[in-house]
Amino acid sequence: MGWGHGPLPGYKQTVPLAELEGVIQALKNTLGPITLAVDSAITISTFLRGRNYVPPVNVQYWRRFWEQAGARPSHMVKV
Fold first, then answer.
1. What is the gyration radius of the CA atoms in the chain, in angstroms?
2. CB of 79 closer than 8 Å to CB of 22
3. Contact (CB, 8 A) for 22 and 59
4. What whole-number distance in Å separates Cα of residue 8 and Cα of residue 50?
5. Other CB atoms within 10 A of residue 40 CB
6. Contact between residue 62 and residue 46 where contact means Cβ atoms under 8 Å apart
7. pTM, 2 dp
8. Main-chain dihedrals φ then ψ at residue 69, nearest 5 degrees
9. Tens of pLDDT along 23-47?
10. Cβ neighbours of 68 (radius 10 Å)
11. What DSSP assignment string belongs to 22-54?
């Protein structure tokens, strides 16, 4: 379990981006298989489309997400 606070990098400050940044940090600071509990339906639906899907917005965040995820088993669940 982890937590964080403060503004996101850059000028864009949205709840879905904050949640995505949180899962990026969780991936960055853990090892092995991971289950990510998220509240954002858009985050889950984009994740389920896989690493080859290019979302119409927030591409730089999704690139960072998939770089951190690498080949490790990652799952998301809606909370």
1. 12
2. no
3. no
4. 24
5. 21
6. yes
7. 0.87
8. -65, -35
9. 999 999 999 999 999 999 999 999 9
10. 17
11. HHHHHHHT--S-EEEEE--HHHHHHHHH-TT--
- Which residues, other chains included, contact 10 with Cβ-Cβ below 8 Å and sequence gap of 6+? none
Name the token pair of 63.
């690139």
Pairwise CA distance, residues 72 & 32, whole Å: 6
Q: Which two tokens stand for residue 11?
A: 């000028």
Which residue in the block uniquely carries the two structure tokens 């984009």? 46
CB neighbour list of residue 28: distance below 8 Å, 6 or more residues apart: 68
Residue 61 and residue 21 in contact, taking contact as beta carbons nearer than 8 Å: yes
